[in-house]
Amino acid sequence: MTQIRALLARIAGIFTRQQVEADLAEELQSHLEMATAENIRRGMNPDEARRQAMLESGGLMVAAEAVREQRGLPWIESIAADIKYAIRALRHSPAFTTVVVLTLSLGIGANTAIFSVVRGVLLKPLPHRDGDRLMYLRQSADGPGGENIGFSVPEILDFRNGAPALAGIAEFSPWTVAIRGDADAVRLDVGLVTGNYFEVMGLTPVLGRLTRPSDDGPGVPAVMVLTHDYWIKRFGGDSSVIGRQVRLDEKSATVIGVLQPAPFFPGHVDALLNMVISEHHTSALMVQGRTHRMTEMVARLRPGATVAQARAEVAAVSARVHSEFKDAYDPGSHYRVTVIPFREVLGERARLTLWLLMGAAAFVLLISAANVANLTLMRGVRREHELVVRAAIGAGAARLRRLLLAENLVLTLAGAAVGVVIAIGGVTLLTSLAARYSPRAGEIRLDGMVLGFTLALSVILALVLSFLASVPKEGTFASWISAGGRRMSGSLRKQKLQRGLVVAQIAVSVVLLAGAGLLTRTMIRLSSVDTGLKTEEVLSMEVGILSPTQLLAGGDADAKERYDRMRREARALPGVIEVGVGSTMPLRNSQVQLEIKAEGKSLAVGEAMPRAEFRTADPDYFRAAGIPLLKGREFSATDRDSAGRVVIINQVLAAKLFPGEDAVGQRLAWTGDVLRFTPFSGDWRTVIGVVGNTQDGGLDAAPQPVAFMPFAQELAIGGGLVIRVDSNASALVTPATRIVRAVAPTALIENVMTVAQIKDQSVSPRRLNAALVSSFGILAVIIAAVGIAGVLGFSVTSRTTEIGIRMSLGADSRQVQQMILKEGGVLVVIGLMLGVAGAFFAGHLMRGLLFGVAPHDPLTLIGVALMITVVGIGACWIPALRAARIDPAITMRSA
Amino acid sequence: MAEKLDVKQGTLALMILKTLQVLGPLHGYGVARRIEEISSNRLSLNYGTLYPALVKLEQEGFVTAAWRQSENNRRAKYYALTAAGRKRLAREARDWHRTADLIAAFLAPGLEVK
Fold this sequence. Notes:
The complex is a heterodimer. By secondary structure, chain A is α+β, with helices and mostly antiparallel strands. In chain A, helix 6 packs antiparallel against helix 13 (about 340-380) and helix 25 runs antiparallel to helix 26. In chain A, a hairpin with a 4-residue loop joins strand 2 and strand 3. Chain A contains 27 helices and 21 strands. Chain A starts with a helix and ends with a helix. Chain A has 5 domains: about 1-70, no CATH class; about 75-130 and about 350-490, no CATH class; about 140-335, no CATH class; about 500-530 and about 755-895, no CATH class; about 545-745, no CATH class. By secondary structure, chain B is an alpha+beta fold. Chain B has helices at about 10-25, 30-40, 45-60, 85-105, and strands at about 25, 65-70, 75-80. Chain B has a 3-stranded antiparallel beta sheet with strand order 1-3-2. In chain B, helix 1 packs across helix 4 (about 85-105). The radius of gyration of chain B is 16 Å and the shape is globular. Chain B starts with 10 loop residues before the first helix and ends in an 8-residue tail after the last helix.
């Protein structure tokens, strides 16, 4: 109690300082006067009386200081004074201050920006209630399209019954619907969910209600929950949207609520509906078909259960089911189910890139800190004289240390302030990058946590920098002073430290440059990948005329007729050479992947059932897209619905099904249990042609097996126009869109893109990666060059006398120059060797981001080594020249 | 002249409180004189020790301070005991007596080893 009271009084003392000072002065004065008066009374003369009084009382100043210490909180006040002093001192060396603050701000800014992304995308707790207990289940199989094949309803039931560690299992089936107006149509990406979905996910509405178990099953009204983003984007956040009827394809649903902002996986979602909106989802096919996998599964861990428990239970269920239903799980395809925390699966694609960038930024900070450390060390040496004087007049080692700390704090905090400004710009850029990789990009903020990180970084930096410089120790003043207060050019230890820092800078620069080189080469390799198309002047547009339900209900013939009309009209546009129609646009993937078999061939034991993409194409498609025909013939007008079944396959599929044989004339058929759920037949089809492979999954993906059916022989489930022109395909966007609108006013028109644009989609994220890491690398090299030049320059300055002596003893300027160059060269070489070793390691870590280059690509490493050597020699040259110009006569005289 | 003693840590506050109890409200100079007199000038007390101690007692609430006219018409800061101060004085005086008795007994000639 007493202590608290005293502390409060002392804190108050800081603020009432001026008045208290006056008070104290008056009190001490009155004391002195009373003592003097007393002495006079005893018979002293006034002067003597006053002198005695002062002597007895021990000095006014000392007393005042002692009272001040008791009054306020002296350490806070002296820190404030230190900081004031530090600012004044730094203002006296503006060049030093500017260089240090800029260097630090770049390092701190880069780290702040990237940390805010890392935090938003990877680290921040999910907005879901107890988000860490939320699990995502993924079923995978070998082969194309097998990474995430989803679950069927019976499979989900297996886990509901057999995995008690999962308290709730909810279903989420990605689906698309179209809102068709009179003159346009918009596609909506929706999720069809079970009633327990929101409970399991731990999400709450911001408006209205969410779906619940009573919304499950057939025969209930269709209801719709809007995601927060869609609600803002489409309805401007209007709360009267609740209760509204929305027409979706041929059905309508009632909006019942708006969901809190939350990330979705695997894809973007506009709204969530109950299953009843899709007849298919409530049909027996879907509910009972074990291989009819089109549902995502999320689950919540039962309280007390661990992820390991859940994994064990899931594995046990899978093993049991695989042996029970052998037909549904081809052993060669290795069906497997993994349990992944939801937060991890959300960050899955971003993780490697983000840690790469974070590592690069940390390296930049490391180099800039090393540079600042060197600058401070050098400045520390120049200030030894000042520090010794301070020590001599009574400043203790701790006090001097604190003075240095105050200066470094001012520097790092100023750097942080500028860095945050840089980060604000950087975050905008990085958010657009992150949006390609993560559904959580919207959560990236420069929030308190990030700023706290920045602040902590600055304070730690300041602490480290302060303890690098040496401070005169108590008891060693004598030796310091007897050295005449002259510059002592740094102890051996300090020189070693400086050199070590330069070596580290070079090594880190090498690592960063090597990383940048690898990413740049990846990007160049990628953009020079042959798409497999013979031309780039191609415009493709996806046109969805009818929904699958409408097609099955007899709209197919009408749709085909409209596609044909569009084709003919587009063909008549000026500049158009060829127009084709097909289900899937060139360089894009079809969602339909099925098992396929060749007549008269049997699989080896344990071999996975081959799978291929199902696509359709009309006779002009291949020529329009520029896909080369390698063997046989293209489709012709005679391959109609009534004619014999034919198929054209790509090279990958031909090699897979008919290795070493001529594929043309052979027969193949779609197969597998899942065919029952599709409108496609398992009839034998004759291969009439083989076409070249195309880079459909992106430029870095291996081409997948594809089979094309004649457009006329299959249901027009997907459709689009491929238009080849003589030049400038993008000029055709407007006229082509107009034609499609006229022929099919309510069609969805999507992904209107030229081949060049599609290509760029795979290259541009890499380009940004490469650009970021390259700019970090270049920054690092510049900072390192400044570092080498600075340290050598300092070495020259402190060795002026020595060099003077050498020269007067007969060394010529060339020898001196070589001596300094050698001094720097050794550092560069050591740094280079360490850096190359580091680059091997870093390249290995980032190999997932590379394409077409080895992690230890010798060309990149040699290039980096050359660049560092050139920059290193350049940086050594300046101080070496200065050393060579030293005039022995002048230095010897001033020594 | 007797050897001057430094004020022992912790005892100065007790002396100040006792002085204020005996003489009533008093300025710093008066307190210093009184302590020196009582100790027959064996204690030397300078500003640097006395005033911080007074400030500390004030902060802890054992004394209050106020400006007043002194007996010879000089403005001076007068310190006065508070109730808490009186309590502390009583307690510390008691503790001090006990300690002093103990030390005295301890240092009694009969107990001397060797």
